[in-house]
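not sure who needs this but someone in the group chat was asking about Malonyl CoA-acyl carrier protein transacylase from Microbacterium oleivorans so here u go. i didnt clean anything up, its just raw.
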Amino acid sequence: MIIAVFPGQGSQSPGFLAPWLELDGARERLERYSELAEVDLVAAGTEWDADRIRDTAVAQPLIVAASLLSYDALTRDGSRPTGVAGHSVGEIAALTAAGVIDADDAIRLVGLRGRAMADAATGEQTGMSAVLGGDQDAVVARLTELDLTPANYNGGGQIVAAGALDALAALAAEPVRATRVVPLQVAGAFHTRYMAPAVEALDVAAAAVPARDAALTLWSNRDGAVVADGRDALDRLVAQVASPVRWDLCMGSFAERGVTGIIELAPAGTLVGLAKRALRGIPSVAVKTPDDLVAASALISGGAA
């Protein structure tokens, strides 16, 4: 089983979309996506600096648009993976690849999601920090003590803590034994109770989006479960805005299902890196530019990555 995975916020970098716009029809598609998302995605992906594309309202549609462009390029010849999963906002791209929602609906939804989460983040001074290494139970206990939320269980010895900035500062000042705390350049405490207003806004919009049953094996961030019912998958995606991302459980489920290869779509690198630590020995390809499509296609067809 070869699966495609789609990255989340923070995977973007200045200018990363430039080589993709050289593909036939890519610029026109991205211009249409820009109108739907209410963001100039062409400029964001080719000209804007790191600070501008870090804005949640920009980063989220930019990442999903890039994932859809690269996935379409990969599958243009008719070859497809047998399963898909997305990390955080990457779940919107995964649902699209699985045929649960249309691409245009996906871009409208992610544009709204980015704006709603950016608005929710202005309510209080919050942030996120990666906690690397250490014992997971000890890390979670320390976060609970500080009223922080383990927002992302990324596997491979990485948990992302989210909450009030003073609590994150206390965590960094007195880290759990054998851990390293790295502040993340994000605008708020995503996947926590602070995002409740965004869930409400997204729920209304998602209710109007037609949902079909998944045509590919589709994993959910909520608990690593395979979800076939399209409406259930969309409901999970909405609720997950204010609940932890369980990518560790997704990777565990990949192993249980006998996944034999992983392809990460643009802007790629993060999820393949996690897989190399947690799913050792499984071939993977990070599709960062169109040049990487040959290796990804070879992995799907049974060739070497």
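also The two ends are 14 Å apart (CA to CA). if thats useful
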